[in-house]
Fold each of these.
Amino acid sequence: MLTLAISALVLTAPAYAGKPVGSDKGAETEQTGGTDDTGIHSAVRIEYSGSVAPNGASGNVTSSDVNWSPPPCWYAPYLGAKDFKKEMSAKIKEAASAPGMTGTPGAAIGQTKAHYEDGYGWEDHPGYEDYNVAKDGEGMFWAGVENPNEPDILKRGSCTELPFWVDNGEAPPPRYEQAITPEILAALAYQHMELPGTEVTLAPAQTTKVNLPTWAWLDKTDFHEVHATASINVPGFALTATTTAKPVSLKLEPGTPDAETYPASGECTFDDDGSIGEPYAKGKADRTPPCGITYLRSSGDGTFNLQATITWDIAWTGTGGAGGDLPDGTFENAQAVTVQEIQAVNR
């Protein structure tokens, strides 16, 4: 019941907003806790840097694991004791005076007030005396934060625990499994990561012939490791995580079943020097390309939609030596290819 009550009177204003930085090289996202004229100000900002989408938008990486998704919400530092008292006490007063706040809803509001003012607690949720004002500066109240890029409103709003106190330098109690961690930051950096969209080089370029091998390659300078960092830094609490994407393979899908790929799987791996495939050169016309396609029929008056998908190995490192792997990421480029019949003239 207290959880239901808190959803009605805490964080009723948007708790998460994107902040433009005017650059395609980075973005910031911040949790807001009120307005400057009330003295209640933003206490949390997740900052993104490196190769990330601008203005807090999702990046262009698609996870190869259909069961993986970024965190829909999490718990993070919200306000110090004095600022939290200003906001929370005002909202409790407003909720208590609203029409219909009698019976069970009224009792829930009363218990919420007692929780933060009189030390009323239950099970593993200790209460607070006067909003913990005596410990102001020694820690912060934490609260749920929604991921604005999560489309499912129920998942986005699933961090419904009452705001809770965490001392500076201490970890949140284990029961708050969604409390912000380096791994959560790494997943958010993954969500915002922007990968390069370089086209595959083809020979012949754009227009090829039926039964003529088309060579495909990427120069080592076209693709390289990509880094995205997410960090949070407030008094007494700081975390950071960097997610790294390393290109590992290129898969070609010709856009028609009437084609052969090289290798047969259509998946070309990166060479030791960071390149993929082999550039076409004069004298190689009779050779089979290590990475390429042979179209077996004409595209007629149209084109075939060649899909070139790069697979990226995703790993992360974070505060305190934390680190690990995330699901591989993919990014797909489409290229229009015209395939013509070779005309022969009989005399």
Amino acid sequence: MAALGWLTPRRRSATARSVLAGEAAAEAARKSSQEPAPAGAGGPAEEGAAEPEFPVAGDSLAAAFFDLDNTVMQGAAIFHFGRGLYKRQFFQRRELARFAWQQAWFRLAGVEDPEHMQDARESALSIVKGHRVSELMSIGEEIYDEYMADRIWPGTRALAQAHLDAGQKVWLVTAAPVETATIIARRLGLTGALGTVAESMDGVYTGRLVGEPLHGPAKAEAVRALAGAEGLDLARCAAYSDSHNDIPMLSLVGHPYAINPDAKLARYAREREWRLRDYRTGRKAARVGIPAAAGVGALAGGTAAAVALHRRRH
């Protein structure tokens, strides 16, 4: 994305940064959705998946917004992207271990820890700084095939397809880089993606963000901005997420869904009679909300296993 003169200064409040990040994501999403998809993109949903009760066919004022990590795809997109960049020697084994640790925490603890997210953001920005946007987009297409395509939840994919079949637009909403999110959306045949916007000048990443990562309240701001630009009625829209961090986004729409929910979101959703869907196995579902202290050994083991696996393969 081209450099934006209104890049947020550090003195802005958290609310102002969220609004800025959301508006930047909405602008990037609308731009990317108007670009032609590469040949072979999209495709039908998994056969045999159950049709949801919602949406209403022909409602052009409605759309659907899907969180990505652990909602549409197993695990974190930024971690899988990091694996692909490591394979292409963008960074060293030390950074790979850091990505593995963050992924282990995310998968086992069921918590999007702010410090881990900050660390992941800074790592990703330092890795892509100085690289061309077009280069990362091309590599991203390859990484999707290598690490992400087989991790899409068929059940969630069917929900998205139902909205498309009803003639509605479907957007991913994620803290992952907007370029990565756009690739995933195109491959799934979705309308587009709202994601974290990294600043670039003359097609080269500067290592800075526009606003802040598209996380928590920033996601809600992005959805609100996009709905305004697209002329949507949020009361007729749907949103899907696994995380309590996305309650602001889910609360914006008339049809919120908790997908593979963490413990806090599951409780919040039941209290408000939101619809729930869980596509995990029983064992994986039981892991959600595991206390951090109880998971320390598993986290360390997950990191070691990731590094050991890489050593065996190479």
Amino acid sequence: MDHSGHGMMMDLPPFTLGRGLGWSADPFFLIACLVGLALYGWGVVRLTRRGDKWPVGRTVGFVTGVLSIGLMMCTRLNDYGMVMFSVHMVQHMVISMVSPILLLLGAPITLALRALPTAGRGRKGPRELLLMLLHSRYMRIVTHPAFTIPLFIASLYALYFTPLFDSLMGSRVGHVGMMVHFLAVGLVFFWPIMGVDPGPHRPGYLMRMLELFAGMPFHAFFGIALMMASSPMVETFKNPPASLGIDALSDQNAAGGIAWAFSEVPSVLVLLALVAQWYASDQRQARRIDRAADRDGDKELEAYNAYLASLNARSS
């Protein structure tokens, strides 16, 4: 197997957290992370200069999401992830289930729509093209639960339990493409559920929770399948380098435990975010009703009282 571009795989010392966090940047993800931070920062600065406010919490969420990707792909974790199933599974779970949640909480699409200038009548600039994409049939399909939930599940079973995974892991380009796929799948899965940004599908809060829990059990089942296996199931990780001093089956069991644990943690995070959004939505609705009552002198209440009075007059 060709691991060129990932360091000297066969000479990696036994894994420790300190060694795993050493600097070893993947060029693609390093550039992508820097560009993402720069564009987001440009948007925030542009809003601030014209006197608009942008919530600090959203900025923190987005920056943390980008840093979580950098942590997985621009450190030695990426090198160890090429030969250790357990480390690879940490990469997969973070990039597909933690990073997307943090990025979506940063509301990058909303920021872009507010920061990008309009192109003018009859012209199409970046803002207009973004709006066209958001309202396109393609986006309605790829964010629909009938598409996102099966894709979320297939990214585990159809990838790891077929030769496709070994083929992708055979080159740096394939590995990068697989990680981009994990991130994209996480984004389209969680976007309709808890994203702040506008999108083609925005179901009610109860339906969002049902969509969330429809996909999570399959992660748990996948983890349990790895933990219960009596032999290594993925060719790439069957013969780890002797320098690591690990047993392939034990490492696979650890990978299964990680997959199982991550099926719970993001569920709790998203559930908390949904409850907070639900509460905030109810508060905004209550304030709108109060403002309407202040404007019209609470005419609905007066009309209802008059109706009761008329009923009372008839009965007497």
Amino acid sequence: MTGNHKNKSITRRRAIAVTGGTVAAGGLAVAGYQSAFADTTTEADASATASATSTNSGACVLMSSVTEGPYYLDGALVRKDITEGKSGVPLTLRITVQDTTDSCNPVAGAAVEIWHCDAWGYYSGYTTANPGGSAPAESEDGSTANDNTYLRGYQIANGNGVVKFETIFPGWYTPRTCHIHVRVHTGGAKEDGTYEGGKINYTGQLFFDDDAAEAIFALEPYSKHSGSYTTLDNDMVYDGGGASSGLLTLEPVHKKDPSKGYKGFITLGIDPDAESTGAGSGGGGTPPSGAPGDAPTGTPPSDAPSDSASPSSSASS
């Protein structure tokens, strides 16, 4: 299996996702997820909240691209809820995309793509990769586990440049801190349930405050994954730059009960004319042991754009 194997099995993955295929990680269920995060605000209210929160933490700053990592897959579905039944603490993400070359105007129509690991550190499509430490096996049925598409998806930005995802708080894997991968695409269009064409303007990662992460990892199902968790200060990708380096602003749904979930906000400042492969530069680590031998380790899939228009951090996962 490679990091870009759309022709082999993505059609089957789409079919499973659309028909409700799930792989439950066990522990804390996402029962009541929809009601807990019912979108009772208007679109304008949501975008205003995201913009106001991000403005206080580095809005309209050109983001530096970093590596896409070894677990990217083509053909993610355009959808708001990317959980596919995965268990974990609910996380609602509101991401605002702004044009740093044009008075910080919103980039309406931008396609924001995210992907991240589950509560035990596993990525869909790469479920045999060992997340490090001690974690339960991702699936009882290894023959079909990699056909799932959990925790991957696109959303198309509204007129205010805002997208919203419903997911779970990611787990961790050695040697990385808790993170979400993100790409911003422009110039393409929704086709066959995914996003096709255009170019990649930004490849980055979103990060979480250590205190919030550690509180989450003490809960089920996260606590079933034991081992040495990498903090922000020791991560190979996060450079300490706050929001401009991908650090999310987090708001707990219930201040005294982290299991109720979080809302995360960030503004991504991009140059819509630039292209970014997310290839990174130099070394910076290897994927967890057990990762597919032909998975990319710091280089993009072979059909990705060849030019990178923004600075890159040295990392590979």
